[in-house]
Amino acid sequence: MKLFIDTANIEEIKKAYSTGLIDGITTNPSLAAKEKIPFDKLVQQILKIFTRTTDVVNLETISTDAEGMIEEGINLSQLSRNVVVKVPCTTEGLIACQELTKKHIRVNVTLCFSPTQALLAAKSGAYFISPFIGRLEDQNEDGMHLVEEIKKIYENYRFPTKILVASVRSVQHITQAAMIGADCSTLPFTIFEKLVQHNLTDIGLKKFLDDWKQAKLKLK
Question: Looking at the 3D structure of the chain, how many domains does it have?
């Protein structure tokens, strides 16, 4: 499962990318607004980090009509071959998705909260579908069950659209997404840091080092 970092903070991006474990990034207007710098400058900094041919940089349109999304999507796609254009899962967004796909521009249909939305996104040629599991669970709905439903629908009809699990709130969400077989997941930097952490690892390492020191051993 590919892992994307869900942030627009350059320092977090650099730290995560330096591990060699991050395959891309997702951004949105809310994340970009937090950084207090012009969007074009922010995007240029991000693109200077994600330079591998396999890297994925998800950049979101802000128009609400299909015509505006298409125009913005074309402009964003021209910034780098790594860019995937994000549009919302609305009627206008799906129309834009179809037109952008015809132009061989990869599209991430975001803000997906139901299996029927995911079905329509796939029929519209979406490269990614982004179910927002955390926001569903905020309303006492089963976010991971939605991922399972989407997975089943896509397998039934052999849709090539990739499932990108979003709105991740915990390490458990990543585990569940991987067990279901989601193609990708995007996660906040704080959750990314926790993926490698376990108290027994820390305890075991300390024990190994203490025993080594006590035995007064040395590596040649």
Answer: 1
Q: What is the CATH number of the domain that holds 155?
A: 3.20.20.70
Let me know: does 132 contact 112? Beta carbons within 8 Å. yes
Q: Average pLDDT for residues 172-199, to the nearest whole number?
A: 97
Helix axes 91-102, 66-77, angle to 10 degrees: 40
**Residue 53 domain boundaries:** 2-215
41 catalytic? Reply is no
Choose, from 14, 86, 123, 194, the residue flagged as catalytic.
Answer: 86
The answer to whether position 220 is within a domain reads no
Q: Which among 91, 83, 170, 172 has a CA at the least distance from the CA of 128?
A: 83
Largest Cα–Cα distance of the chain, in whole Å? 72
pLDDT at 216 over 80: no
Over residues 146-156, the mean pLDDT reads 98
**C-alpha distances out from residue 25 to 3, 100, 156, Å:** 8, 20, 29
Buried b / exposed e along 131-160 (16+ C-beta atoms within 10 A): bbbeebbeeeeebbebbbbbbebbeeeebe
